[in-house]
Specification:
The chain has helices at residues 8-17, 21-36, 44-52, 60-70, 83-91, 95-100, 103-108, 141-161, 166-183, 188-211, 215-232, 235-251, 255-268, 275-291, 295-311, 325-338, 342-354, 361-377, 381-395, 401-417, 423-434; strands at 112-113, 116-121, 124-129, 133-134. It has 435 residues and is mainly alpha-helical. The N and C termini lie far apart (49 Å).
Length: 435
């Protein structure tokens, strides 16, 4: 199937248990007989479809059987779990047993550590359960693969709801991993892989803290991430963290540092970057040049960002998925606001809004706030408050303190101006925040 993503988690699990496609099919059939009183009909061809990604969501009986075979929850097998499939699994006669692994079998297996978080995403409560970690014994590559799937879930929450509270979650998981490393055995390859996921979690924690406007905490997380990336020998991870640090430097008004850090990331990954990552880094350069008043260099960097993005064909990792045409146009809008060209910035941000993937609700909120600022700077108060009204609509669904502060600042600025076009917005904003 074109575009299908191989199920690497399942492949790692099979390798760890010494199973080929035929042996896993046999194990699935035996597990089905144990669960449902009749033998299954899985074949090695069906297993290969699972591995290739051609089958993204297995039928209910296959799912239940594989959960029994590997003694794992459904979301730890590398498949896509639809809401309907989740409800079906829970509605089985032995629902809790199937979702958590068979009790008798669990007693024979190594104990695991698990922590569940409840996140209050404004009006939404989100349960977030990390992949389990061994309490003793050996840590294998399948454990690392499950940790990485948890990191992807964090970014999915951030894309939809914003990063407030997620730094707490990421940092707590780092602590759990480090504790497990102190108790368990693992080989040199697993050790490097563990340092890499620790670096990835610290990178994510730093970004979430930055977006929550806690800059000292973000800096600490970035430093910890760079240390872990060095131990893992992973230049791409180092460059990823530098891209976050470059954006932070621009936010803090350090124009030349913004450029220096982005250039270091470009130089370190010259021969192996994802094209989207190249686009992101050139966008960071554009911000730094604009803040320094270097309009021509800013324009060149933005042109390179667009060229790199046009070449992107790879499926990006979760942390990089937000980089698309809307993101590059947003960077251009911010740069042109630095260059005191608010009309041009507003046009670019408006165009970027139309190209933004709907799943990035947090980014939509940020863009609406910035577009409001652009319109106000361009002396278009009526358009500014109309756009800010849309941001208020999302305010109740997105936890993004950094942009919430800017929306509050916008409200203060239009209230001070005392323009008749802005009175209704100020009243609505005040009512919404008071409630």
């Amino acid at each position: 199937m074109p575009g299908a993503q191989p199920n690497q988690v399942l492949k790692v699990l099979m390798d760890e248990h010494g199973l080929n496609a035929r042996k896993l099919a046999d194990a699935i059939n035996s597990a089905e007989e144990s669960l449902f009183g009749r033998p299954g009909n899985a074949t090695d061809r069906q297993v290969r479809r699972f591995l290739s990604g051609e089958t993204e969501t297995p039928h209910l009986h296959y799912f239940a059987a594989m959960m029994r075979v590997f003694q794992l929850q459904a979301d730890q097998l590398g498949f896509t779990i639809t809401a309907a499939r989740s409800r079906q699994l829970a509605s089985l006669g032995d629902g809790p047993t199937l979702l958590e692994g068979h009790p008798a079998d669990r007693q024979e297996s190594a104990p695991v550590l698990r922590r569940e978080f409840v996140l209050a995403a404004t009006g939404n409560l989100l349960n977030f359960a990390f992949a389990p970690l061994p309490a003793s014994g050996r840590i294998g590559m399948s454990d690392v693969a499950r940790i990485r799937s948890s990191i992807d879930k964090l970014h999915a929450v951030d894309d939809a709801y914003g990063g407030d509270q997620l730094a707490d979650v990421a940092e707590s998981y780092v602590g759990q991993i480090e504790d497990a490393m102190g108790r368990c055995l693992y080989g040199p390859n697993v050790e490097k892989a563990l340092y890499k996921v620790i670096g990835e979690l610290n990178a994510s924690a730093g970004w979430f803290a930055f977006d929550s406007d806690d800059q000292p905490r973000a800096t600490r997380a970035f430093d910890a991430g760079l240390r872990a990336a060095l131990l893992a020998g992973d230049r791409m991870l180092q460059a990823r963290i530098w891209s976050y640090m470059s954006r932070q430097s621009w936010e803090l008004g350090r124009a030349m540092e913004t450029v220096t850090i982005a250039r270091a990331a470009l130089d370190a990954t010259r021969n192996g970057r994802d094209h989207r990552f190249s686009a992101l880094l050139h966008g960071r350069l554009a911000l730094g040049y604009a803040a320094s008043g270097e309009a021509s260099r800013c324009a060149n960097a933005l042109a390179r960002a667009e060229t790199c993005l046009d070449r992107a064909t790879e499926t990006p990792p979760a942390w990089l998925a937000f980089v698309g045409p809307g993101e590059i146009l947003g960077a251009a809008a911010m740069a042109h606001m630095n260059l005191e060209q608010p009309d041009r910035a507003a046009d670019q941000e408006e165009q970027g809004m139309t190209l933004l993937d709907p799943r990035f609700r947090r980014n939509r909120f940020a863009k609406l706030v910035h577009l409001s600022e652009c319109h106000l700077a361009a002396k278009r108060p009526e358009q500014a408050v109309a756009t800010a009204d849309q941001a208020v609509d999302l305010y109740a669904h997105v936890n993004c303190p950094r942009w919430a502060v800017r929306l509050e600042r916008f409200r203060t600025n239009v209230a001070r101006a005392g323009l008749p076009e802005t009175e209704a917005f100020v009243e609505r904003y005040d009512e919404m925040t008071a409630s």
